[in-house]
Automatic annotation (TrEMBL):
The keyword Kinase applies. This is Kinase, PfkB family. InterPro entries: PfkB_dom, Ribokinase-like. One of its GO terms (cellular component) is cytosol. Keywords: Kinase, Transferase. The lineage of its organism: Bacteria, Bacillati, Bacillota, Clostridia, Christensenellales. Gene3D superfamilies: 3.40.1190.20. The keyword Cell membrane does not apply. Pfam families: PfkB (PF00294). GO terms for molecular function: kinase activity. Residues 5-321 form the Carbohydrate kinase PfkB domain.
Length: 335
């Protein structure tokens, strides 16, 4: 019987720069004190969050990093968790990095990404005979160049990878990077045809489905959320479609049941950073799926996990055990 979760995809070093404000073109802004370096990317964030949610959960990491100081930092961080296996990591090229500009007041982030070794992650890096897991989570689509390439039979190489995972008896889960432009329509739909759990934010869902979820003045279009989730199922998602936003978590199961839970109202000064909050939400939902929890309980754990993440500046340092995360949720929600 397959056991554990395999997390694959982007392994990145984030360099976080606190700034007074994001400048316009040709303008200057000030980088303030507090520059820090941390691991980032879907693989690093999600697998370390899962390791903290359940220290006994078997986890397998699959990704590409360089044989360089940045790659060494990633491996040192993963090695802190006894339940994470890194035996299937690949060393080649230069480790990917992202310069993250974070406004001090709003905590709004802007990313400048160097693809590096991540761009070469491919299906040959996945030995299905060695991967013992119940769920494969991979991200981010649109940021893994080789897997984003066209495939004549499946649409994209990512879609082929997901198909082969399912053929090996593994449930699949995907995440997408927030990006504007026409690549969503070309790269995301093929993958959704082989996706069991789709866990994405409202901008990514809007781009994938074509259904507006934000107005021009940045208000959430709540009446369209159920439509977007239903559309994700029409595009191929089989089990759960989940959308997260600052306002809350929204989901639908295969029977068409719609779930909506609001985000926690956090005390003033609680939020220390927003880097990794989306991955934390994803981790909570993914763990709920692995444990066989209801969609509602999984979304609640996702919201609790995101709240834990927001309490620290780094991507994963704020995460707690699943029990502690739900206790935090209860203390802040009164439920």
């Amino acid at each position: 019987m397959k056991n554990g979760i395999c997390v694959a995809g982007n392994a990145i070093i984030d360099i976080l720069y606190p700034i007074e404000r994001y400048p316009g073109k040709g303008e200057l802004t000030t980088i303030t004190e507090g520059i820090m370096q941390a691991t980032g990317g879907a693989m690093c964030n999600v697998i370390m969050d899962l390791a903290r949610l359940d220290p006994a959960l078997p986890l397998t990491a699959i990704g590409r990093i360089g044989n360089d100081p940045e790659g060494k930092v990633i491996m040192e961080e993963l090695a802190k968790f006894p339940n994470i296996s890194t035996d299937q990591m690949v060393y080649e090229g230069k480790t990917s990095f992202t310069a993250v500009m974070c406004e001090n007041d709003t905590k709004q982030r802007t990313f400048f990404q160097y693809r590096g070794a991540n761009a070469q992650l491919c299906e040959e890096d996945f030995d299905w005979s060695r991967i013992d897991c119940k769920i494969l989570h991979i991200g981010y689509i649109l940021l893994l160049d080789t897997l984003d390439e066209e495939d004549g039979e499946y649409g994209t190489k990512m879609a082929k990878l997901l198909h082969n995972a399912k053929a090996s008896g593994i449930k699949t889960s995907i995440d997408v990077v927030s990006e504007t432009g026409g690549r969503f329509a070309r790269l995301v739909p093929p993958a959704l045809r082989y996706t069991d759990y789709c866990i994405i934010n409202e901008i990514e869902a809007q781009n994938a489905t074509g259904i507006p979820l934000r107005t021009e003045d940045d208000a959430l279009v709540r009446e369209n959320l159920e439509k977007a989730l239903r559309r994700l199922f029409e595009m191929g998602v089989s089990t759960w479609a989940v959308i997260h936003s600052p306002e809350g978590g929204f989901g639908m199961d295969a029977d068409g049941n719609y779930i909506e839970l609001p985000s926690l109202v956090l005390p003033k000064g609680y939020i220390k950073g927003t880097v990794g909050a989306g991955d934390a939400f994803c981790s909570g939902v993914l763990y709920g799926a692995y444990e066989g929890r209801s969609l509602e309980d999984a979304i609640r754990l996702g919201i609790a996990s995101a709240a834990c993440s927001l309490s620290r500046e780094g991507s994963t340092e704020g995460m707690r055990t699943a029990k502690e995360a739900i206790e935090l949720y209860g203390s802040m929600s009164g439920k």
